[in-house]
Design a protein that fits this description.
129 residues; alpha/beta; Rossmann fold; five-stranded parallel beta sheet; 5 strands; globular
Length: 129
């Protein structure tokens, strides 16, 4: 994987579980020139998205205050979903129709396989650039 083609990546991790956020951040820190932001729920994430330009979002489906589906609905209403892939993080297996209904681009299941996590991240960034 040639990460050098992506300059100064900004990625947001939205998950209420601190361990999961830190695990994803640890995996992503293998990518050069990356800035990682974290949010504990959809409400906090919306304020981050209003202030930053992002390249990718990892989104937990089940969170308090505002879950992943509510977050996606709010993004659509505010027309803030522009130019970055959103990958759901869940323990569930989702069908294509469920994924389409939520509005995310893909999903990864917990627990993560480190190498495939990075490969998927690379592929989605490559396809969205």
């Amino acid at each position: 994987m040639d990460w050098s083609k992506f300059n100064n990546l900004s990625i947001l991790i939205i998950d209420d579980d601190q361990f999961t956020r830190e695990l994803i951040e640890t995996i992503l820190k293998q990518i050069p020139n990356i800035t990682i932001y974290q949010a504990t729920d959809g409400v906090e994430a919306l304020s981050v998205i209003n202030e930053l330009s992002l390249d990718m979002v990892f989104l937990d489906l089940y969170m308090p205050n505002m879950d992943g589906k509510e977050f996606m609905d709010s993004l659509r209403e505010r027309e803030k979903r522009k130019g970055f892939p959103i990958i759901l993080i869940t323990t569930d297996r989702l069908t294509h129709s469920e994924l389409d209904e939520i509005g995310a681009d893909y999903y990864l299941t917990k627990p993560f396989d480190f190498s495939s996590f990075l490969e998927r991240t690379y592929l989605f960034l490559e396809n969205f650039k």
